[in-house]
Every structure is written in structure tokens, then in C-alpha cells.
């Protein structure tokens, strides 16, 4: 098997889909690996390190030549695939709902596109889950960016000149990113509270030493759909949540929002009126900004000031931690390929459960039921 590792073309994408560590391991499986020149530079990996790991470091025109598997962080531009074998796999975060046209072009090119973000949330696939590995780092970075933008300190400090009070941090959405945001804010010494629609998160919030803020006494608030993901909530729930959040948010210094619903725009959690109720100098980091945002008025990669409150959010948060994000992403892809590597066939062979979940295109057609349905 020939595996090609492409340099990312999307603006602002600093990550890379393989590291020298995973290149070595892929070669250990029996594959040969081509890495595009400069692919790792923005993630602090030089061409020489890839070469030392055993990769052929080649130009953009040659990298996909005879490839059976093309690896990317994001879905490659179809021109980057020239020379790949018919039916070659494209293994990457393909943003299937956001970049549908590109998926169609993979189908017409005859490729088998595998969307790593569609990995099912089952125990054996945990080590292959790019959403988890990248969200974890994003939750951490969101808190650091908010702390950096905040004109005050996070921890309580007693000094000869008087006491600095601890910042109050509120985390909305307690999935993988939210849990890491809570942990990071605690480490920085903030007073932390958090909320989610999934009632199962209450205990997780408490176990991190933060205070759960939950809607009580509303019917049907389990909030959990398939695969542990959130569902769209009832109007009654949304109203109760908005009231609760309004009174709590006015007392907060920092809010980190992370709420997502798969395949839908991000739920709106904070309105302009709620922003106006916050103290001037407060900071809101909207991690959901690439999916439409949880916060009214937040704009990706811009600092927006509303009613004296600073709104921030990145279009690509893990790209701000390129080296670690790449290391984890690359291991996710390696874990995936190695789990399915068939020694006799000398190539990976997917099983039905995972194959059907992540396969978007095959034999010239879009085949994934989440895209067809
Ligand atoms: P996500 O990124 O899809 O969403 C982030 C959080 O926002 C979720 O906790 C969600 O419940 C919450 N949310 C959605 N709408 C909201 C609203 N209106 N108000 C407040 N919060 C709202 O979620 P995620 O980080 O991918 O994690 C979801 C769950 O899946 C977690 O329980 C996680 O532990 C689990 N998980 C399992 C596996 C696995 O078993 N392989 C892998 C990753 C995550």
C-alpha cells in the first residue's frame, strides 16, 4: 500500500495528518509513505524528520502518485489527488455537511472517501476519534485565549497591595471540549460552573470540582440522543434554560460555549440582551463559531466588543495548537488504519459497523445514509 500525506491547502490549517512517529508505524505495517514537501512545517515537523522516519518527501505533483490511501486533516482539493489509484481511500476530516460539493467530486473521481468525524462513538473506536482528540485541545485553548483577553487575573491572589478576586468562569456544553475547559479553568484558579442539556454531565461537572447549573422540573430533559450526542430540546426546555442562564450569566466574568448538535447549526445559547447583562470587561469564547456560533454576534477570528463584553472564537481552534493537535490527529488515523490492517491482504479492510458509518462515497456514488437521508 502506498500512503500519501498531503500538505493542507485550507487557509489557516496548520495541522498535518501524519507525524514522523506515525510514518514509522505505517511503514511497520508494510506500507510505503509519501509526504508532500513542507507538509509538517506549520506543525513544527521538518521534511528531514519525515525522511528520517522513512518517508519519501516529494513535490505536490508527485505525492499522490499511485496512492492507495491519501491522508489529510481536512478533505483535499481534488487537484491534489492526481495520480492516485482508482478507488483510492481519502482518509480525513471531510466536513460532510459543510463541504458537500467536494464530497460529490470525490464520488465522481471514483474515490472512496472516509469521513473520520463520522466515526461511531463506540468503545473500540475511541482511539480513532478525531472529534474527541481535537475537542479536548480546543477546550484547553479556549480557556487560555479567554484568559489572555480578560483584563484581570483568573486566580485569587493575596498581595501586599490587596486582594485580587478569582474569576468566575461558566462553561456551557460539557462534552469533551467543555470538560477540558472546566479542568483548565480550575487549574488556573477560577471559580467554575457549567451546564449541559444532557443530565448525565451533572456528575462529571461535580467530579471536576465545578458547580452544575441545570434546568429542573421540565419534562423530557434527558437531552441525550444516539451515540451520546445531544438532541434538539423542546420549546419549554429552551425557555426554562434561557431564564436560568440569564440570571447566572450576569454574574460571570468568562463564558466558554461549546454546544453542538451533529448535522445542525450550533444552538443559540446567548442573546445580545444576555450579553448586555454582563459586566463590562467580561469575555465570551464561542467554540461553536465555525458551526454558526452559540453566541449572538460572535465572528470567527475577530474580537467583537458588545456592551463592553469581548466576544472571541476561532474558525479552527485546534490549528492554534498545531504540534499537539497533529500528533493526536495522526495517531487517530494510524490507530484506525492499523486496527483494520489485514496482514494477508497487506491492506486495511473495514468491517461493516465502522465502514458503513464513515464511508461517504464508493464506486462513483455518494453512499452514506446521513448524506442521502
Ligand atoms: P458535542 O461536541 O457534539 O457537543 C458539545 C456539548 O454540547 C455536548 O455535551 C452537548 O450535550 C452540549 N449541548 C448541545 N446542545 C446544548 C444546549 N442547547 N445547551 C447546553 N449544552 C448543549 O459533544 P462531544 O464533546 O462530542 O461529546 C458528546 C458525548 O459523547 C460525551 O458524553 C462524550 O463523553 C461522548 N463521547 C464518546 C466517545 C466514544 O465512546 N467513542 C467519544 C467521544 C465522545
Report on the architecture of this protein.
Helices cover 30% and strands 18% of the residues. The chain has eleven helices and 19 strands. The strands form five sheets. Strands 11-10-9-12-13-15-14 form a seven-stranded mixed beta sheet. Strands 3-2-1-4-5-6 form a six-stranded parallel beta sheet, sandwiched between helices. Strand 5, helix 3 (100-108) and strand 6 form a beta-alpha-beta unit. Helix 1 (20-29) packs parallel to helix 9 (322-339), helix 4 (130-149) packs parallel to helix 5 and helix 4 runs antiparallel to helix 9. Nicotinamide-adenine-dinucleotide binds at residues 121-123, 125-126, 129, 131-132, 135, 172-178, 195-198, 228-230, 233, 258-262, 267, 269. One of its GO terms (cellular component) is plasma membrane. It catalyses: NAD(+) + NADPH + H(+)(in) = NADH + NADP(+) + H(+)(out).
> What general outline do the C-alpha atoms trace?
globular
Query: Mind telling me the C-alpha Rg?
Result: 22 Å
The order of strands across the largest sheet is 11-10-9-12-13-15-14
Which range does the strand content fall in? 15-25%
Name the helix and strand elements from N-terminus to C-terminus, one letter apiece.
EHEHEEEHEHEEEHEHEHEHEEEHEEHEEH
Bound molecules: nicotinamide-adenine-dinucleotide
Discrete helix count: 11
Low-confidence residue ranges: none
Instruction: State the major sheet.
Output: 7 strands, mixed
**Structural class determined from secondary elements:** alpha/beta
> How far is the first residue's CA from the last residue's CA?
33 Å
Q: What level of helicity do the residues show?
A: 25-40%
Please report the total strand number as a whole number: 19
Provide mean pLDDT, rounded. 95
Keywords: NAD, NADP, Nucleotide-binding, Oxidoreductase, Translocase
Organism: Novosphingobium marinum
Function: The transhydrogenation between NADH and NADP is coupled to respiration and ATP hydrolysis and functions as a proton pump across the membrane.
Protein name: proton-translocating NAD(P)(+) transhydrogenase
